[in-house]
């Protein structure tokens, strides 16, 4: 559950968000639809505690993003725009590294194996991330976002740049994940919202 109340964000002189309020519940896959510059990424960065709002309150699974930021981060998986990854790391090595940020050592191996299976990375898991196609890199990004089994998933343009086959696969994956979680994804493609989301903002 995410509750955004009267959020405004001003970067220097640029007002990126102006008094925005909405709620998203468990089981919802909510699409942020809007042209470039509408403020989608800014809202996602605020929900995931990357940057603070100028004004307003955000509550994620009962925790306040300013006062209880560590708790919020435990609840949230985030796939940032352009999916930043360490290209020189091997898939398994990278996922183990990310898992180690969240989980005790004893759980890392099992969790990484589970994520590789769930995101369909098995055939490519021995490669360096830099050697993967865009679709498989997106899978690595999704796997890293979900490695700590968060209740909330924030996905910034998760399907941008994918070819039609990859698009279908990644959409199906997100739709499947969304049944158990609270998901917000951003896109500027109308058809994407119809294909994946049950709500649009
Ligand atoms: P979207 O994700 O919908 O494309 P953004 O949230 O990236 O929109 O951007 C919203 C507005 O805020 C844009 O006008 C953008 O130029 C501006 N903006 C985003 N990040 C910064 C920043 N770090 N400093 C100044 N302006 C920014």
Identify the notable features of this structure and list them briefly.
about 200 residues; globular; alpha/beta; five-stranded parallel β-sheet; 7 helices; binds adenosine-5'-diphosphate; four-stranded antiparallel β-sheet
Structure summarized in a few sentences:
Helix content is 38%, strand content 25%. It has 201 residues and is α/β, with parallel strands linked by helices.
How many separate helices? 7
Q: Helix-strand pattern, N to C? A: EEEHEEHEHHHEHEHE
Return the average pLDDT rounded to an integer.
94
Q: Which distinct ligands sit in these coordinates?
A: adenosine-5'-diphosphate
CA distance, first residue to last residue: 15 Å
What is the makeup of the main sheet?
5 strands, parallel
So what's the overall shape? globular
What structural class should be given to the helix and strand makeup?
alpha/beta
Low-confidence stretches: none
Radius of gyration from the alpha-carbon trace, in angstroms: 17 Å
Helix content bin:
25-40%
Estimate what percentage of residues fall within beta strands: 25-35%
Strand runs, count: 9
Structural overview:
38% of the residues lie in helices and 25% in strands. It has helices spanning 40-47, 69-75, 91-102, 105-118, 134-146, 164-178, 190-196; strands at 2-11, 14-24, 29-33, 55-60, 63-64, 76-79, 152-156, 182-187, 199-200. Strand 7, helix 6 and strand 8 form a beta-alpha-beta unit. The longest helix is centred in the last third of the chain and has 15 residues, at 164-178. It starts with a strand and ends with a strand. The chain binds adenosine-5'-diphosphate (ADP). Adenosine-5'-diphosphate binds next to strand 2 and helix 1. Adenosine-5'-diphosphate binds at residues 11-12, 14, 16, 34, 36-42.
